Amino acid sequence: MNNSDPRLVTPLDWPLVRRLITQRLPLDMVLALTRGAPGLEEVMLSAVPLADLGAPTLVLRNGGTDYLGQFRQRQERTVAHLTFLAPEPRGGNSYEWAQLLESMVFEAGRRGVHVISAEIDEDHPVFEAFRLAGFAVYSRQVILRHAPGTISGTRSVLLRPEAEQDSIAVSTLYLNTVPRLLQQAEPLRMPEYNGLVYERNGQIAGYLAIAEGKSGIVIKPYFHPEIYEQVPEIILSALARIGRAAHVPVYLYARSYQDWLRGILERVGFEPWAHQALMVKYTIIRAERMESIAVPGLEASRLRPPVADGPLPLPKFGPVKHKSGPGRLPLWKRNGK
């Protein structure tokens, strides 16, 4: 292996990782906004066999330039998210970053991942590298931020924690409101989220997936269009229920299919914080092949043509006699001959 081939990090790369990790570009915004920068110990867990399904980290050493990238495999194992690239990519080296991205996709596929995603600003220099590596834009999103502060608790009665019996209703809401492409790239159930539900007339019409960490709180909302007017109260109710919202910032996702959310959120104290694209690539492709199919016989027993041991005898015919009777002409006269 030459020194330009991406590979998994080893304990010998610790000094390099320690130097680059502080200059990272986050690509998993939920992780970055709730937990902050990953520590050296977390990055190096990928060198331990027992953590093979955790957060694999790859390094590319090309001459005097070093490139580092990490992805995180979800619990369901078929979905992964790029965590960061380090140092933060600049213009002019898109090919090297694309090479590293392709290697991470290959490594993810080797571990059973079917789809891998990343969140990135469309005007960032590394966007071109993602395109070269075969990533496609599945959705655009605005992340809005609410500054820490005390929220009145009178609105908290609108929501309740998700219960086990809500699973089917919440999944139905998700399937009916989220575009199919996004459903494939980002499953609803993820271990880092807790849920709050909003009921209307006995039906779940709103669901908030909430991730909390030492650095902040992230909310991904799912609303039925019929509760448009209730959304401001629902959001304020959620902030009132989350006690740590008074001490850390709250970030809320508004995807392109939820454009109507932006104006509502700005009225209750949220401000646009980042404009991004969700980039997705599949590690598998659909392959079609011709396959022969056995068709059962139409008859219970197979018919066989008769086989003769010798020449078949031909019947002997004598001269044809025409019978004539009263009022009946001979055949040769009836034919006009």
Structural class: alpha+beta
Assign the CATH topology of the largest domain. Aminopeptidase
Q: In one word, what is the shape?
A: globular
Unreliable parts: 47-52
Beta strand count: 13
How many domains? The number is: 2
Quickly name the level 1 CATH class of the largest domain.
Alpha Beta
The CATH architecture classification of the largest domain is 3-Layer(aba) Sandwich
Detailed description of the structure:
It is a single chain. The radius of gyration is 35 Å and the shape is globular. By secondary structure, it is an alpha+beta fold. It is built from ten helices and 13 strands. Strands 1, 2, 3, 4, 5, 6, 7, 8, 9, 10, 11, 12 and 13 form a 13-stranded mixed β-sheet that branches. It has two domains: 1-134, 3-Layer(aba) Sandwich (Aminopeptidase), CATH 3.40.630.30; 142-274, Gcn5-related N-acetyltransferase (GNAT) (Aminopeptidase, 3-Layer(aba) Sandwich), CATH 3.40.630.30. β3 and β4 form a beta hairpin. The termini are far apart. The chain has helices spanning 14-20, 29-35, 40-44, 94-110, 127-132, 167-177, 180-185, 231-241, 260-267, 331-334; strands spanning 7-8, 25-26, 57-62, 65-73, 79-86, 115-120, 136-146, 160-161, 194-200, 203-212, 217-223, 250-255, 271-282.
